[in-house]
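Sharing a chain and its predicted structure for anyone who wants a worked example. Both blocks are below, sequence first, tokens second.
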Amino acid sequence: MQSVPRKQRIAVYAAVTALVVLLDQLAKVAAVRWLAGEAPRLWLGGSFRLQYVENRGAFLSLGAALPEAARTGIFVVAVLAVLILISIYILSGAQVARGELWAASLFTSGGVGNLIDRVLLGYVRDFANIGIGPVRTGVFNLADVAITAGAIVLLIHLFRSRSGG
């Protein structure tokens, strides 16, 4: 594993996080402006759908029915704690591989994007959905895409590091 130098880590982590959070928040503002209160907009025979949803839960609205205090504890306090731990690992770790850096940058940026919504609004603004017929994703946003991409990058990194690549 070739470690990324600390200064480079800080620059990449800060730049990716800032860029993804900015794009996520701009997309959410656009979704509110152009999609809220409107019928879903369909493309590619309905395979890609834009529709505005206010999600008080997590993925697929899991936890949306929990009391507000429980949602705050899980989706704000616990997420913030995880983001802080990821940041400490990346920024102060002695050895951090490129894959770990990119995965952490994407996880953090997605987490911060959704955390901003939860803290300021009490819910996350979602607006995109893909699928064919009844097989569809949940409604998601760019922060969710970043988190998913981070998971994929981490899996690739883990497989490569196990195989010696």
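Comments welcome. The mean pLDDT is 93.
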